[in-house]
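Residues determine shape. We examine one folded chain.
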Amino acid sequence: MEKRIIHFFRKFLAKTPFHPQWIVFRNNYESIGNLGMYLKGKVLDIGCGQSEVKNYLSQDVEYIGLDYYYTSVDWYHSSPDIYANATQIPMANGSMDAVLLLDVLEHIPDSDKCLDEISRVLRKQGTFLLQVPFIYPIHDSPLDFKRWTIFGLENTLEKHGFNIVKFYSQGQPFDTSMLMFNLSLGKILLNSIKKKNPLMILIPVYPIIVFICNIVALLGSIVSPKDDFMPWGYRVIAIKK
């Protein structure tokens, strides 16, 4: 039953306000596609998953999706262009114009080695688009190792030869609060199924609760003062020195 519920949310509700992570997903790839001035030429997408971002990039881009074999086969059932480890990228030095690393760095045990590899395959003045979670639950366990503040990202990227040219805090306090409520309630209900807990009775109304929270989050983020106090994540555009 638990797997059927998860499959239902992933397949049918992923792009609707009934999905617990709609706040995160609703314009994620579209907003990346709007960064066309930075994403040109050969673009390497590390940890590409289903390669959804490709649909939002310019037709002139030579897109290359790379993912770890185990992740592709067992988790995403996808077929990237290249199976490889993010700490051993099978590309020549300076061969890429841009590299995407979207919600992947936290899953790599040796993040420094990964960043060194990205710096190696990028040409000088090449673009590195990095996206990482901050206030966000443990996911894809046990392969979830780190969280960074924007100050930690700036320090880390500087050490690996990158200059940040722009960054975005993803999520206002209203958004992040509702997102955490949606996810925590969902986890509680899934645990209730396993343990036959009385809270199981909330499962039929959970999508309605999520819908209300998502709409409240959207309206709240529009009318409330902008604040970087508690983002769910960060997106960083960096240039190789």
Q: What stands out?
A: The chain is about 40% helix and 20% strand.
